[in-house]
Prior knowledge:
Oligomer: single chain
Shape: rod-shaped
Order of helices and strands: HHEEHEHEHEEEEEEHEHHHHHHHH
Amino acid sequence: MRERLTTLACALGALLVFGTLFLRTGVPGERDVPAPTTIEAKGNGLLGLVTWLREEGIRPVSLRERFGALARRHDIPATGNLLVVTLPAVRPYRTEEASALDKWVRAGNTVLLLAALSDRPDWANGVGGVNTYVSLLSGLDTMDADGDEPEVPAGKEAGASGPADADSKRREWFQKHARDLIELPEPQRVALLPNRPHPYLEGVRQAVALSDYPPTPRVVKVPRDGFVLALAHEAKGQQGVLWVRPLGEGTVIVSGLASLFTNRALGLADNARLFANIVAHMVHRGAAVIFDDEHQGLSVVYDPDKFYRDGRLYGTLAIIALAWLVWVLGGTQLQAAPLRSSTPRETELVRATGLYLARVLRPAAAARRLIDNFLLGSTPYARAGHAGQEPWQRLETHPRLARADIAQLRAWHEQAGTGAKVPLIPLRNLIVRIERQLNA
């Protein structure tokens, strides 16, 4: 039992070393924040929206490639589609992507930008680039009410000229917005109210977004050569939060509330009605609602983050580790180093010699030696017999000895002389009994 416990302890230690060397662990204290993707079933994911679209007979498509693939895909109609883009993104947008998206929208499609301008869900906290991405994809410029950069500077995407400049801007931003980085004890509701009747807002009295961090008031500026229609505003600050802009044969819709259609907010107020109106007016029959999962971390290429987040990996490793432990405990054992014994005692030497002789000495030879030793030196009567009287005659005429015992002893002696097997234990007992009678 002790050896198996030792084996178990060593096996668990080996597993611990393996996990430390080969398994990736998160940063201590880091919270797992769900991303706004179509496979995410937690709070800010979009799985609920995808499930609802399927039940309504509308095909959802997870786009795990860059925007240049929109024109190349044959499973998506050329026009009448709706592309849902959530900002900020964890993977930066490229200039050629913006050009490809512009052509795709002008051909007769719609893009819905859900940008964290007036709300701050947990996945958007500390992620820079919202200002830049909104301008790149929609042509609208945004800034906070104080004229300061509304998000954490993110290097070149945020306008920094180099690493040193980016670090300096980040330090200044953190000093000024330290309070804004503290998570709220309960999500704050940000209400969207319609400005005027519009097909998108039919039956919508208000829509509600959830902000996990204190939101920053935003101001949207329209380019000189552009046009944008403000459809709704925030209930408290009166800032615009929903805009629509025609672009060629298509449409660009910008929502300043990124969490309107997430799993936890879709069922609040008239959020579902607002999205249903957009789909009803902008998605043609047979077209699809496309979700930009590529820039939120889901890609058709190998993704190590997704690999380590997959629960099947850890389930497989647990089964392998359990099978290995069963094999180690059941099929192997650790043997302790042999102990060096002390000098053997006399009884141990006699026992070892006897065991050796018992293995190599034939019973007939042992019987002859026992009887000869008895006759030649074990009693004074035997020794006296050498003076002229044979030992057997002296023993047979002794008054204390039974004639049957002497006859049996003599028969065994003759039997041993012929090489026949003699019972050694009865022979030894007979000799001891005769010696006791002689010495009485």
